[in-house]
Write a structure and sequence with these properties.
heterotrimer; A alpha/beta; B alpha/beta; C alpha/beta; B: Pyruvate-ferredoxin Oxidoreductase, domain 3; six-stranded mixed β-sheet; 6 strands; C: alpha/beta; Rossmann fold; 2 domains; seven-stranded mixed β-sheet; 14 strands; binds thiamine diphosphate; binds iron/sulfur cluster
Amino acid sequence: MTAREGYKVVAKRPSTLLDKRMHYCPGCFHSTVHKLMMELVEEMEIQDKIVGVCPVGCSVFAYEYMNIDMQEAAHGRAAAVATGVKRMLPDKLVFSYQGDGDLAAIGTAETIHACNRGENFTFIFINNGIYGMTGGQMAPTTLEGQRTSTSPYGRDVAKVGYPLRMAEMVANFEGVAYSQRVTCTNPAETRRCKRAIKKAFEMQMKGLGTTFIEVASNCPSGWKCTPEESVTWIEDKMLPYFPLGVFKDVTKKEKKAEA
Amino acid sequence: MLQEMVFAGFGGQGVLSMGKLLAYAAMKEGREISWMPSYGPEMRGGTANCVVNISDERIASPVGSMFDVAVVLNLPSLHKFESVVKPGGVLIWESSTIKEPPTRTDINVHALPAIEKASNELKNVKVMNMLVLGALVGIMDIVKKESLIVALEDTLPKRHHKLIPLNEKAIELGMSLVSSGA
Amino acid sequence: MSADVRFMKGNEAIAEAAIRAGLQGYFGYPITPQSEIVEYLAIEEPKHDYVLLQAESEVASANMVYGGAAAGARVMTSTSSPGFSLMQEGVSYIACAQLPCLFVNVARGGPGLGTIQASQGDYFQAVKGGGHGDYRLIVLAPNSVQEMVDYCILGFELADQYRTPALVLTDGSIGQMMEKVVLPPPIAYKPNKPWATTGKPQDRERNAITSLYIESEEMEAVNNELQAKYKAISENEVRYEGYNLDDAEVVLVAYGVTSRVCRKVVDLGRDNGMKVGLLRPQTLWPYPTAAISELADESRVKLFMSVEMSAGQMVEDVRLAVEGRKPVHFYGRTGGIIPTPEEIINAIKAQL
Ligand SMILES: Cc1ncc(C[n+]2csc(CCOP(=O)(O)OP(=O)(O)O)c2C)c(N)n1
Ligand code: SF4
């Protein structure tokens, strides 16, 4: 794409993102994260080295948009599928891209055991606190008191338990090399999100272990609000419970040891 | 007698609730009914539809391939359903937004500028579907207007009952448009 | 008191029926096109006594049902095809442990993740044993919203009566469609389950619920017990409906939503001078084998045709019943497509 005369290109679709109309709802961060990832694939020149695994969830059709080799897994099984891919193709960069229902409910066992084995792939975990695809049911990460179609009177933690903090949880596993929670609520955070994914990919290339990037994400449709309101909601409601930050970084430790 | 009807348009135009209301009204009149919506990817591209059957006897199939009545509120729906109206059947189409009129001559075609009338005369485009329903019962005499009002009372949550007079007006406007028009 | 007549979606109706049947526990995981069941139960929950829990997966749901049923409660789960695949482990254990409970599969098109449109592709899984080992499920196949209500209650009752899991096998179209239903008054459910693990009082032996029988002889004895039970169910619980079978030359066999379409085919066929009749299994297991067999003996019957939303599953049971006496044909659509009456008429014509 060349800029019109007098204009300068400030944003464009990376060549690695197919020129298709996405099915995501307007303002949904799924599309933002897709774009960030595909920008990285372009910038890092890894289109021929990367293989992705999509989940069952709104991003089930990620393979329709990302112009890279991808597989579609059964609901919750992306980490097991990614394990199979990575074990057979250890020199490739492998990632799973999963929602909260997929990664932290039906797929919890696969997630935990992949992390515990230190499977050398990258989790991209889109935590929007709800089941988007099936029409807004409660997720393992739904906040206390949050209304969903299966918690119409608000999540009652005494009955259904507490929202799971996955980035913190996986940081406890020896096999995990990197765990960070990011978001995309403003340009600075979005750039930080991209840097985090890049770092995870780089660490994977060095074979350091499991890398886990959780994105505090939104679901304007499921939350029944505008995209703008969803951003405020993340900042006011989600981030106090799901704080941003790095929960584990083995390269930091190494540096400290050296010093 | 069995009446097989399809209602189609953009999601948000109220085609599903229009069909539901009609079916409910017919049920209140003691008739047999079924309402079958499109769901899932069929809805993608923004077009929704429902098939409503009303009969004096047990309804065999809740789905059908040919219809006595098709009500279409957008162009994709007109394309999809014009050809499946039974010869001699009724086609009602939204004529203030659909710019390509139907072409069949072996069916009774009714152009209805429902969106324009609802926004100009009722100042509320949301009741456009009630206007269309009024036109339909004006043409076909499927259920009584009173039954539609009962249906509204029964199915609308209490907090929306203040909207019933407006809906009633829309139904009446629809009825008058077809009685005076043609 | 006037009858409680409502205009309801199939999924909502089954949820309301479960409440009226005295539901004590529902465990499930969201999946389209059946999520309205759990959503309805979630809305109604404060008005009733049942426990509603969204599980972390269908594997867990089925095993929660195991625990709840073994504790003597009236429990159920509902799901759609991919979820029912995950439940098969639990189903097999529940069958062996002889626990009464209700499963609902609002089926969708497969295999794999497939489509969320209606399908009858789970017939084999339902009636031939989707899990391991020699077990059967009582399989009820409603074809209307009213029957979603009736068979939900019947399923619970039969499950209790025979101490065995029951399955309502329906599909997305019936789950999503709305019809008139007459709701029965609520049942005051008082379980009488002396075998349940409710805490051992002084005056009875301890109860153990298990599906483990390490000794071959013991395992065989349990299998014999199960088979005797299945024989009793086969003898007593076959349900089917005939439509214009008395003089039929062409016998259609169809269940669920396709049986509704076939009813219309019968009428259309007769308008065109074809003597078509319909046999609709209401129980898919036990199967109306004897009824089909009797028809196969009638000289006027020229052929059978199984009409399904699958690539041809129930047709095998029709063939087993007909035992080669008459030709058995198949017409089906897959992918979530409901066949039209016209297609079916043409398929019949092609065989005549
Ligand atoms: C075995 C199985 N159970 C249930 C489903 C239905 N299902 C599809 S996506 C989904 C959860 C989606 O939520 P999440 O993982 O949070 O992703 P999101 O859509 O919010 O991005 C469920 C329950 C399924 N496809 N397979
Ligand atoms: S339903 Fe929610 S998660 Fe799914 S695309 Fe829409 S906004 Fe995004």
